[in-house]
User: What shape does this take?
Amino acid sequence: MAVRVRRAEKRDIPAIVEVNCSDVERWYHFTPRGRAEPASYEELSSWERVMHGGPWMDEAALSDYWRRMERLGVIPLVAELEGKVVGHLDVIFCKDPVLGEYLYLDVLMVHKSYRRRGVARALINAAEDLAKDRGFRKLVVQPEDYEGPSGLTYRSLGFRRKWEVAVLSLTPKNGAEKNEAKVQSISPDEERPVEAFPMVCGWYVVSAKMWDYAVHPRGTLYTAIPLHSLVFKVLINSEAFYIHIGEKLFANGVGVLCLWAPQNFTEEGLRRVVGTAEALASAIGLKKLETRTLDMFVEVLGKLGFRREGFTEPFMVKEL
Assistant: This one.
């Protein structure tokens, strides 16, 4: 029977949760220190379920996350076989100075019992149709495992490896100064810089989503574990930068750094804004900053004290 793809609605939330939970073989309790003893799904709180794979693992959490999706313009798709939802794909139209204009495939999951039946292919084909209808000529995705099944699926559908993603770390210097930079707080309704400012640090996901996480922290999904989250606009002479520092979950003293820079940023300006980030990180007790960046930024960040710790899954692209 043919796979039917349609736009998801809130009434599909229970079915989407079922699809994602099908991939979990064993559930665990969580504490502020990390994973704890095994448990049944029913015994877990909402945030403990989220720890197994995000808000798609719990109906209340996904209902909360749906508001973020609407704010970002995420389009959720579901695939049906014989009237049953057996897969879903979230996509978002993006534009930034680094990757250009593209449709991003954000989250793709197929029910464990319905794989190898063309569900993923049908969802991705539907995404291609959305892109073409909007006049976008490029799909972008970061597979869960480039060398594994997800990467193989995308390669079989015409995606190719495009941008490498390096994992970097930085140890804030003791007594780091703000370099006479002017630091301004940012409100949630601040105009997004993502279309005009390259995201130099923070490529855990695409720029639009990282900015949304900066100004709208994960909130109710993680209330059981309070975490620092700072976002500022930094003015250095005539250059404006944006930085977000978020405390990393289950990693005492470690923070995650995101940094948006003007398109023609100078190395000196970048050095000073990184110094500002170090000062802010030290002020909240962080001993280490981690980030992810594209290979095009590795050299300049290396000059500023960032250490390369390896690479993670690349971004893949399909031209339409």
Summary: The CA atoms of residues 89 and 124 lie 8 Å apart. The two ends are 27 Å apart (CA to CA).
